Amino acid sequence: MRLLALDTATEACSVALLTEHGLISASVEIGRGHAQEILGMVDRILAEGGATLAGLSGIVAGIGPGSFTGVRVSVAVAQGLAFGAGLPVIPVSSLEALAVEAIGRGAERVLACLDARMGEVYWGCFAAEGTGLLSALGPPAVGPAAAVRLPEGGTCAQSAPSGAARWQGIGRGFAAHPGLSVITGLSVGTDDARALPQAREMARLGAVRLSAGGGIDPAFLEPLYVRDKVALTEAERGIERGVGK
Fold first, then answer.
1. Parallel, antiparallel, or unpaired: how do β-strands 120-128 and 109-117 relate?
2. How much is the mean pLDDT over the chain?
3. Which of 13, 71, 103, 244 makes the best surface tag, with the fewest CB within 10 Å?
């Protein structure tokens, strides 16, 4: 199996190539310009891995959540490449990619969290499976940092169940909102608090999904925005500055 993975949904613009010989990847953190950067990175990674689009088994697409523009670029580029080469696509979310990274280092339960701007975060809870991969413990969510919860028996609580495996936090939402790190039962390392989703983890998860028949026609690839609001209103910005009511 040969898979190309790409993601531009956050500040990280990343590409990975997974083949029978291993995995190679590249990532650059940029504020803007993902659309101008990503195709050149794809060409370089394919050349480094001695691969061509026609020789791939599929393309793994980062679908968000993240910045609206970044998510659209990621989905559109994946669709364009897949259409041109007649390949299936495998969608992977930003939060899943973060969770895969933590699980790959031994975490059993993961709270993945990204800065959503406007005083909010994207988050999702995941558990490691026997395969070393993950299952979602609920849908991805967005809201104020104070609303973030760990699941407990189907309900929401600020602490993990007694005797349960400790939760590992990962994602730049923790750096943007340090108060999240004090949730009872949660451990967040300094590097984990700065982590962004990467194509290398998307490639690993995508390979498992494609093997299980999870590839889809690129025409059906959809972005995962989680919310449909891109900016604060003037009144909301005034409240943030302390001048509104």
1. antiparallel
2. 88
3. 244
Burial label, 139 (beta-carbon count in 10 A; 0-12, 13-18, 19+): exposed
Tokens of 195: 């982590």
Match 């059906």 to its residue by tokens.
220
Residues 103 and 162 in one domain: yes
pLDDT digits (tens, 9 = 90+) for 178-209: 999 999 899 999 999 999 999 999 999 999 99
The model's pLDDT over 90-143, given as tens digits with 9 standing for 90+, comes to 999 999 999 999 999 999 999 999 999 999 999 999 999 977 689 999 999 999
Question: Do 115 and 180 lie in a common domain?
Answer: yes
User: Based on the domain organization, do 46 and 16 belong to the same domain?
Assistant: yes
Domain that holds residue 32: 3-93+198-220
Buried b (16+ CB within 10 A) or exposed e, 161-181: eeeeeebbbbbbbbbbbeebb
Structure tokens at 32: 């803007």
